[in-house]
């Protein structure tokens, strides 16, 4: 049994879809990305970032991924300090302007057309008449990232399955869940399977999409 799980999948897609170069370079270097984000927000070396500052930065990053409001962040992370939360997000967007531009563009797109695009260019319809505006904007922000990440992961696994068959490796996919998959592999074929897995699930996505 082999379990493969993408690390920080949605944050990587956010960095790419927002074309936020600093964040993409941080992933390339293999640093602790939440500590890196905190160092940029609080303007201090990564070695001096506290665990609380890292937690704030991690919560803000995932809050942007899931389309949470500043008020929600203030309530959950800062004891209801709305002014402090607004200041924190202002510093976040100043450090990573590509993300602010991405969020604004998604909101403008859904308001004008009622849909947003995945990384493949496929439209995702969002019912602007059924949902409140804040929910429409949240989905416009979140859906392209979640859908792109999951779809590309599934596509990579499809390619891996084709490669396994081509090389006559005795392995079968058992399941896929958003950013991870499970395989059943004959033990004798394990060490032939692993490089094919890396090529399909990591190399293909990096070479084709820069993620």
Topology overview:
Blueprint: E1 2-5, H1 9-17, H2 21-29, H3 33-42, H4 51-65, H5 70-77, H6 82-95, H7 97-113, E2 115-117, E3 123-125, H8 133-166, E4 171-177, E5 180-185, H9 190-209
Antiparallel strand pairs: 1-5, 2-3, 4-5
Helix pairs in contact: 1-8, 3-4, 3-6, 5-6, 6-7, 7-8, 8-9
Overall body shape: globular
Q: Bin the helical content.
A: 55-70%
Rg over alpha carbons: 19 Å
Tally of extended strands? Answer: 5
Low-confidence stretches: none
Largest sheet: 3 strands, antiparallel
Backbone structural class: mainly alpha
State the separation between the terminal residues, measured CA to CA. 27 Å
Read across the widest sheet, the strand sequence of neighbours is: 1-5-4
Order of helices and strands, N to C? EHHHHHHHEEHEEH
Number of helices: 9
Mean of pLDDT: 91
Q: What amount of the residues lies in strands?
A: 5-15%
Structural description of this entry:
The two termini are 27 Å apart. A hairpin with a 5-residue loop joins β2 (115-117) and β3. α5 crosses α6. With 211 residues, the chain is mainly α. It has a three-stranded antiparallel β-sheet with strand order 1-5-4, with helices on one face. The chain has helices at 9-17, 21-29, 33-42, 51-65, 70-77, 82-95, 97-113, 133-166, 190-209; strands at 2-5, 115-117, 123-125, 171-177, 180-185. It has nine helices and five strands.
